Amino acid sequence: MLNVPRLISACILLADFVVTNPNKRVKGGKRNRSFDNIYKTGNALRQFTNTNAFSCLALCSDDIDCRSVAYNLNDGRCQEFNRDFTNQPVVGTNQVGWRHFDVSKGAACKDRPPTARDCDDVQSQGYTCSGVYTISLVPGKSVNVLCDLQTAGGRWTIFQHRKDGSVNFDMNWFSYKIGFGDPHTEGWLGNDNLYRLTSSHKTELLILMEAWDGVWKYASYSEFYINPEADKYRLRVSGFSGTAGDSLMHMMSFTSPQGGQQFSTRDSDNDAWPLRCNPTHHRGGFWFNKCGASDLNGIYYSSAVDIPASCNWYTFSKNRQSLKTIFMMVRKV
Ligand SMILES: [Ca+2]
């Protein structure tokens, strides 16, 4: 799993650390005790405040007894637990916003990828390692895709990833339509595939972003889909929550109630700006308005350069600083 993205790698490393570090296990000497099935509140080890999902996982790795965490998306509380709660809701708390993360999966990656419809299907087939799998969104046609099977319950199909600037994202309409790049490094899964992924079920969107100072933030949307190419892959997104702020908001405002902005590329101007958002202000393909507060497909810079044409999310830090890492992912609700 050398090429999986950093966040996912970190999750796996955390899992390996907890599971395989023999010194720590012996030192703690508590691994043989049984884990009961009572509510999470009865298995809580520690609670932290003002964390993010990533630091919450890191804190768990420091505790021999920690096997899973619950992270509150709304207020940053992080609770550690001494057992796994795979796919179970947090019980025993009335507050909303809790998401659960298993840390010590302990399951070895299966080396033969399945053919599945999406990453939700991959996970349903028993695969637990985040990484690249082969899926088939169209009968008889397969595509490699990066699956996040750990963050917030997993089942995420990643359709956009930036991490090192190795792939040019200022591509034309056709390239965005069919997809480009490599799921092992950087890429765009393709607007036709994104339409297929989001049109057959209600889907949610999660965007994970890391700035150059190592701070991770996220934007979550409870509903997300795009229209087919005939409507220029028009954006529909709603139900924001998260720490990074809502920088897709302007792609949905100034528009008719029927939908948000259409997709634009450097050779297909469907934005609301009198000229073209790309290249007037931005680069890459996106759902530009006039032109909007984000451009996650902009130019990748190797530092926090404050430029609108960069891959940026304005509400992350109230500027246009180029981000270090980006994941855009969808899953069935
Ligand atoms: Ca225009």
From TrEMBL:
Domain (Fibrinogen C-terminal): residue spans on this chain: 110-333
Cellular component aspect of the GO annotation: extracellular space
Keyword Signal appears in the UniProt entry: yes
Keywords: Signal
Keyword hit for Flavoprotein: no
Record's signal peptide: 1-20
Source superkingdom: Eukaryota
Protein name: Fibrinogen C-terminal domain-containing protein
Organism: Mytilus galloprovincialis
